[in-house]
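chain below, 311 aa
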Amino acid sequence: MGADGSKLANEENTLRELEKSCGCNFPGSDYHPADRKNWISGLNPEKVHLNKIVWPGTHNSGTNEIGVFLISRPFAECQSLSIYEQLVLGTRLLDIRVNENREVCHGILATYGIDVVINDVKRFISETQSEIIILEIRTEFGHNDPPEFEKYLEQHLRDHLIHQDDRVFHKTVAEILPKRIICFWKPRNSDTPNPGSPFWSSGYLKDDWIDTNLPVRKFESNLNCLSQQPPVSSRRYFYKVENTVTPQGDQLDLYVKPVTHRIHWCRRLFITQCFLKNIADRLQVFSTDFIDEDFVDACVGLTWARIEGKA
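prediction:
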């Protein structure tokens, strides 16, 4: 085993030992929603304040069909489910990157048009009553903004958009309905959305992205950055923590799935550590590659515990 391999093995062992020593139990850890498709509804929209939700998110959400199967796709695929399937599973934040042609992309690789995402979101909304979605759309690095994109989004999502407003964070879901989508539009060259706009500007969704393939470095960085945030009760923006690691160009393992799985299993360990470090009241948007039921349940369980006064 080379030096890099030994370092990675040591890092994974470090996290496994941490799991053995502290466990993965936290308030709400044994809670499982009866219906993940309608989990916000199941928690009672009149009791669920927006700033108490732990939002299960997907990183690079629109990559399930990107590139060529078994050839270029493994280098860019971060989700195996469609947008609609992710929402049905319980995902409530979607991270969508677009190019100048209104195609969803990840780096240089493009996939289906943004209309596929919009149609899946609208289908999900039509089948549910109280589920709020955070839709984060940005122009991918190295690309130009799609022309008149804000007009396009407003035309197709107008009836569902929750306008940019600081007061939203302290409202219950019931007070926000029937509006259903908080849509962030993050252009590279165009003007950013103004206060009161149907769209939210980038300052309302923050993160501290660390580009690394080392799971301990990412895990500890996430904890450190989260600790520097104010509690959700006083925050007037969303803060996202991504439980992911990233392939690096100088490494032999360039496929997304085996690299990100070094930290993929750490979702419950991370939440447990947040409680042990007294920063669980700061966790808000928790995002992952290849989202699954357990990741959703961990986020929903903590949300339930907050609503019930157990966390």
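The domain at 3-307 is CATH 3.20.20.190 (TIM Barrel). The mean pLDDT is 95.
thats it, cya
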